[in-house]
Structure formats: C-alpha cells, structure tokens
Amino acid sequence: MADDGMLLNFDLGSGPVKPQVKFKGGNWRDRKQAQKSARLASSGPEAPRPTRDEDDQRSSKRQRTDNDGFNSGFDYKPSARYGPRDRSYGGDGPTTQHRNQGSDLKRTGGQVISRLFSFNPAQKTELEEEKETEWTAPEATNAPLSDSFASLTISSRLVEELKKLNLERPTAIQKKVIPHMLSNSADAFVQAETGSGKTYSYLLPVLHRILLLSERGGAQIHRDSGVFAIIVSPTRELAKQTHAVLEQLIRPFPWLVSTAITGGESKKAEKARIRKGVNFLVATPGRLADHIDNTKALSLSTVRWLILDEGDRLMDLGFEDDLKKAIDALKRIDLTDKLPDGTSLKSLPDRRVTVLCSATMKMNVQKLGEMSLADATFLAAEKDINDNDNDGDEKAMKAPAQLHQSYTITPAKLRLVTLISYLKSTFSRRGRTMKAIVFISCADSVDFHYELLRDPMKLEAPASGSKDAESISKTVSKAGYITSPASPEVILHRMHGSLSQPVRTATIKAFSECKLPSLLITTDVSSRGLDIPSVDLVIEYDPAFSFDDHIHRVGRTARAGRPGDALLFLLPGTEEGYIKLLKASTPPTPQPYDSILQKGMMTKLEFPVETSAAIIDGQTYHDKAETLQLHIEQRLLGENKTLELARNGFKSHIRAYATHIKEERSHFDISELHLGHTAKSYGLREAPGGIGAGVERKTKKRPFKSGGRGSGRSSGKDSGKDSGKDLSRDTGDDDREQPRSDRPPRDVIKMKSMMLMNSTADEFNIG
Q1: Quick one: three-class SS letters along 491-523?
Q2: Of the four listed, 59, 96, 418, 526, which is most buried by Cβ atoms within 10 Å?
Q3: Cβ-count burial of 178 within 10 angstroms (0-12 exposed, 13-18 middle, 19+ buried)?
Q4: Confidence band of 302 (pLDDT split at 50, 70, 90)
Q5: pLDDT confidence of 650, banded at 50, 70, 90?
Q6: Where is the Helicase ATP-binding domain (predicted)?
Q7: pLDDT, tens digit, for every residue of 6-56?
Q8: Stretch 521-541: mean pLDDT
Q9: Residue 713: CB partners within 8 Å, gap ≥ 6?
Q10: Is the same domain home to 373 and 455?
Q11: Which tens digit of pLDDT belongs to each residue from 375-425?
Q12: Please, which pLDDT band fits residue 520 given cuts at 50, 70 and 90?
C-alpha cells in the first residue's frame, strides 16, 4: 500500500497510561456514582467542582452532596442560616430550584438534614407590640349579671335546679329574652355573642309556661299530651347538647319527656319514642322534615314554639328546603286549645311562636327570618349591636372582650414544629387541668395530626365506661411529643364529620369529662354551640373559612365570663392582611414563632418512635427544631400508614384552601401557596401530586404577574365537586333512609354544593 504522506503525532505524556474502566451491572445511578468517584480519585483532591449548569441538569429529587453519600459515618451538623427572603418564586434562585422538591435538604456524612430556616418568605408585618406589657383581661362581656334568676319571675323549682348546675345569675341576653317570652306571644329574633347563654334564654320561659299547666304535680300534663316545642339545630352535636341541657332542666319533672332526632341514629327507634309520646323535640332539619313526611304518630297541633338555633349556620349548610317544609307544615295545621282528656291549654301562647337565634345578620339569615317570622321583636344583649353605623355590615358580632386573641406569622415549613412547640409549652403549666382545641380545615388532616401526635407505644385509651370504650378506641389515645414533667400524660382526641355518630358522641363526651390535660383535634364540626367545660385554649392551626366561623371557633373558650386564650396561625404574605379583620373584633397580640420555638424547646424533647435523628446536648433551639423535623420525616418514611395519611392530609388541605369565602379570598390566595414548603408541614420531603388540575394550575407561580387571583373560581369548582359528596354526612342528615326514587335529584345536590362554595362552608369546614 502506498504511503499517503499523513503523519500522526500522539503526545502520551511522561506518566503511565491509565486504562479506561467501563462499569457494568447495577442501575444507572450506581454506575454514574462509580464513574464519578473514579474520576475524582484520578484527578486528586484539587479537582474542580462541577459548574452550576451541570447541577441544574441533575434531577431535582437527587441533590448534589459534598461526599455523594460515600461517607457512612453519622455526623450531625447544624445547617447554615440565611436571612429572610422575599417571596418571588418566579425568578431564578434557590426557591425556584427547590420548589418541586418541597424542602431545602443538605446531606452531611450520609445524613439528610432538613433546613427549616432558609428560603422562607419575608414577613411584612412588623411586630412592634411584642415588647408591650402582659395582656390584662378587660371586664367580661358575656358574664352573668348581678341580678338573680328569681328576679325574672320564673318557676322556683327551675331556679333551684339552676342552682344545682351552679347557675345563679342570668346573662344580659337571658335578662332580655326570658321576660319577653314569658309575657307575650310575639316572634323574636335573638342576637348575641357566642357563649352568652342563648340556650337557657329560650328553654327557661318555655318550661315555665308549660309547668303552669301542671299545678298539681303533673296530673294534667304527661308525655301523651303532645309536642309543645320543636328546637332545630344545624348539627348533631349541637342538637344532642341542647337535648342534654333540656334533660337536666326537666329532671325534677318526670311527667315531661324530651327526645332528640338526628341523622346517624336509628329512625325506627326515633319513631317508637315519638309514638310513646314526647313534649319536646330537638332535631336536625333533615331528620325533622323526614319525620314530618313519614311518621304519622308525629302530631303538630299542640306545637306552640319553634326555635331555630344558629340560623346562619342552618342556611349556610343548605337546609332552606327542609326548614321551609317544617315551617309550612306548622302553618297548615290548626292549633288545638284542649287536649283529648279535656285539659285546657290557655296558659300557653294563643299562636305559634317562632324564635330565630343567630349571631349574625347575614342576608341568608334575613331570608330565613322573612320565611319564618311575623312581626318579630329584635332582642340583643347590647343596645348598639343593631346600630346603622355598619351600613349592613354582616360582621357586627365580636368575640368576648375577656378572650385573649393572638396570632403568629409562621413560614409554611415551620408550621408543624411550631405547633408541637406551642402545645408542649402550653401543657408545661402546673397546677390546673388544661383543655385545648386545635381546629384544622379538613378531616384527612385531622387524621394525620392525630396519628402523628399520639404515642404508638401507649395504645390503651383512658378508663371509660364499658358502653363507650369501643366507640372511642380509635379516637382517644395518649399523646406523645407534647408531654412534659408538669403533664406526664396528655389525652388526645380527634373529631370530624366522617366519623359515625356514636363515635362522635362518645368522643365529645370523653373530652368533656376528661380530668387529665387533654387536646381535641377537630374540624369546624365542633365550632358551633358546643359548651365544653374548662376549655382554656383554642388554636386555629388552619384559619377559618370565614370571619364568622373564626368567631365561633374562638367562642369555645371564654364562655359565661370565664377567661380564655386563642392563637391563630398565619403565613407570611397575603394572609397577614387578615390581621385587620381580627383588629375589628378584639385587638390581637402578636407572637413571633421564634419565641414559641424557644419556649417549647426549653424542655427535653422525647420522641415516641426511635429514628436516627437525636437531640445533642448544647444544640440551639433552631437545631432542635430541625432535628424534630428530621425525626418526623424519617418516621414517615418508616411508617407507610402515617405516610399515606400525610399525603392525603396535604392534598385535602390544599383543596380546602381554595374554599375561603369570596370576600376574604384576597387574604388566602392559593396562587401564593408554596406546595413544597407546605408539604414540609406534613413531614413530607416533596409535594405529592394528584391534588386536582385546577388547584395545581393555580399554585404554579406566574412571575411578574400581579393579578394572581384570576383562577379562584376554577379551583372552587374542583372543591365543589367534593363538597357535594359529603354534604349530608357532617350536618346530621346522612341517614335519611329514603327510597332511591325519593332521593333528591342530582341538580339539587349540585345547587347545595355551589351554595356552600359561595358562602362559608363545604366538606372541609363541616367535616
């Protein structure tokens, strides 16, 4: 072959030639790691690190580390701190880089460390009030007055029974309503703040006028005399509580009988009780309408009083049609003046009296008033509550003055550790039994937090009656994480509308009667009307879906003149505008999350489940908080059940966030939510998918676009699909036992769902 004149010159250098090693076997990650380690070993210790562009091309789920996980020794080091950063998720920077991962992770010596204090959005509100003196409670606005019940000219036997219940003086609303209902037969609209005793204000005059028929020890009146009063409550819990109060009052009068008819109970047993005879009927709207249609033994000719309790809630939950059916049925039936045995009913009102109780004057309440009231008298605890200065403002109601409200602006990543720290410091108080309620937006989130905070090593529930022991076996447990030397045992309870009615009733009873420090984790199903004794603290971990719901939530404490505390968690950014609404009710006190963490981390942290994360002596409270978060994340990775609960809770939480009422949606803008940071508050290292197309589109950040609220309607539509699904379950009407042909058509269910979306409630805040 002829020489073509080409000369090849290879410069091999002076060193030995290193053969190129080809790695085979294993998966591609292992081969890539082996190639990298071989390259680093050949280049020596001074090898340059890869450029930023190479880092950006790597998978967001596999973060680059200094030693790439090859150092198997465990050496926990606190993560670096960064100052607060403005919430500009659309630009380039660490926040964008970590958005999909859901957290800022650092791996030191093979150990992943959760970085809670970096890449958090900047807080807009300056806490200038932090250095003020300690809050002092003003004079209580719902406390009993100096007058006694005897001055209201009610039956002496009722006064004696009230003394046994430690009730000797009436409240302001009772002093107005009781004389009115005793002296005339006019309809009444009763408006008063939460915890002011509206239940006794209408029960006492009704009982007094019925007792006038029994002048000889009950010879004339008995259970067969007919139904004299019907009390309608929006939820099963409130109906059962009203029935319990009524049972206490009629205990000395065995010839009077009351019963409660609610969804979730046996309708056959309710029919049997009605057939035997009752004088007082406490009912939820759907079950009452059902019995009016289908129970022939229910006679309405003797009914003199129709009490509509919590009128705003009755309308918010879509009971307008059921209420209209009951009201029309009463209007169609003529009153009877005598009983079949000849007993005269002249001491009773000569017409049916309707009493509408509501804390607000919203438009739907006015509609209910037009439907049920005729020439009604307005009765309020304060003269200025009906002033025209508000120009129709629906938020005239306020929290009790002696209620100490506070708020904390906490970044999403720090919410869970801050909640645990606050509960731990709360139950560190000595010398008194402590009851606290934590309100959460949805049932799935309640289930997760209950499972996380309970101690899995102590499965036995506290001692209770054999009747309720089985019902509360999965809703009452001993708590972990939040115990302290002052409270070595804290009893944990969970409550939401997806639980069966016997379980809900038994759980509320167990929480009310618990003598140890106890905590109830619940949805808004427990926010209305429930009078649970000795509740000292209410925590709104998720803000209420409307300001009215917020007032009712915090109203579970500071009742009947007693003091109470309430803490609201808010996120930095648009949620800080909600503080203006709080100031319109009662001036709130700010609590920096740093101070909450510092107080909570002062005592020794004890983990009920063992993981590789451990507290080291000398750590700052920042490091302890990161260790607690790391422990929770590691625990979830080892517990499939808890991990699934966390994922479901996160998804439901995001959907629920889209259902705030229209007037307040500017403060709770779902497009401002950082899904990854929110996932950290559920112990997740990345945000799971499957939330819903509309919600996921809304939460994708749009840089440099100011109108981020444009898609609020679409996400509400997604949530509306779910709201119709559980509409009856949480309002006491899931057990109607109707034939398939008699069930409401699909368009009616859709209408109710849209009604909930446009007002205050849906599946998330009623269950």
Answers
A1: EEEEECCCCCHHHHHHHHHHHHHCCCCEEEEEC
A2: 526
A3: buried
A4: very high
A5: very high
A6: 179-379
A7: 655 555 555 555 566 677 777 777 788 888 888 777 665 554 454 444 444
A8: 86
A9: none
A10: no
A11: 888 888 764 444 444 443 444 456 677 788 899 999 999 999 999 999 999
A12: very high
Alpha-carbon distance 741 to 140, whole Å?
54
What letter represents residue 542's amino acid?
D
Tell me the three state secondary structure of residue 259.
strand
Mean pLDDT of 220-231: 89
Between the CA of residue 750 and those of 714, 723, 733, 755, what are the distances in Å?
Answer: 15, 9, 17, 9
Q: Distance (Å, rounded) from C-alpha 10 to C-alpha 20?
A: 17
pLDDT at 717: 35
User: Looking at the domain assignment, is residue 560 inside a domain?
Assistant: yes
Whether residue 361 is found in the same domain as residue 439 = no
In the block, residue with structure tokens 């590789």: 612
- Tokens representing 589 are 């006190």
Q: Is 81 exposed, middle or buried (0-12, 13-18, 19+ CB in 10 A)?
A: exposed
The answer to whether the beta carbons of residues 589 and 137 sit under 8 Å apart is: no
In-domain check, residue 238: yes
Task: Single out the residue in 573, 597, 621 at which a domain terminates.
Answer: 597
Please report, for residues 74, 297, 345, the alpha-carbon distance to residue 340 in angstroms, rounded to integers and kept in the order given: 86, 15, 11
Percent of the chain as helix, strand, coil, to the nearest 5: 40, 10, 50
Q: Same structural domain for residues 573 and 475?
A: yes
Q: Which amino acid makes up residue 191?
A: Q
The pLDDT value recorded for residue 765 is: 38
Judgement on whether residues 331 and 450 belong to the same structural domain of the protein: no
Same domain, 379 and 423: no
| Better-scored residue on pLDDT, 437 or 218 | 437
How confident is the model over 100-114, as a mean pLDDT? 53
Contacts of 9 (CB under 8 A, 6+ apart): none
Coil/strand/helix, residue 203: helix
Let me know: does 424 contact 596? Beta carbons within 8 Å. no
Same domain, 318 and 414: no
Range of the domain at 288: 154-383
Which residue is listed with tokens 């003269």? 383
In tens, the pLDDT along 331-388 reads 998 888 888 877 888 888 889 999 999 877 778 888 898 999 888 888 887 644 444 4
DSSP secondary structure of 604-659: PP--SS--S----TT--HHHHHHHHHHHHHHHHHH-HHHHHHHHHHHHHHHHHHTT
Which strand (E) or helix (H) includes residue 159? helix 156-164
Are the C-beta atoms of 665 and 715 separated by less than 8 Å?
no
Q: State both tokens at 711.
A: 């898609």
Query: Strand, coil or helix: what is 454?
Result: strand
Report d(CA 358, CA 369) in Å as an integer. 10
CATH code assigned at 519: 3.40.50.300
Beta-strand pair 535-540/435-439: parallel
Q: Quick one: how many helices (H) and strands (E) in the chain?
A: 26, 17
Sheet with 188-191, strands from edge to edge, namely 258-261, 280-283, 229-232, 305-308, 353-357, 188-191, 377-380
Q: What are the tokens at 166?
A: 């430690």
Q: pTM for the complete prediction?
A: 0.67
Asked, for residue 606, whether it belongs to a domain, the answer is no
- The answer to whether position 14 is within a domain reads no
Angstrom distance (rounded) from CA 499 to CA 431: 34
Q: Domain count of the chain?
A: 2
Reported as a pLDDT band with limits 50, 70 and 90, residue 699 is low
Domain stop point among 383, 414, 445:
383
216 and 240 housed in the same domain: yes
418, 410 in Cβ contact below 8 A?
yes
AA letter at 692 = G
Within 362-504, strands assigned E span 377-380, 403-409, 435-439, 476-478, 491-495
d(Cα 325, Cα 575) in Å, to the nearest integer? 41
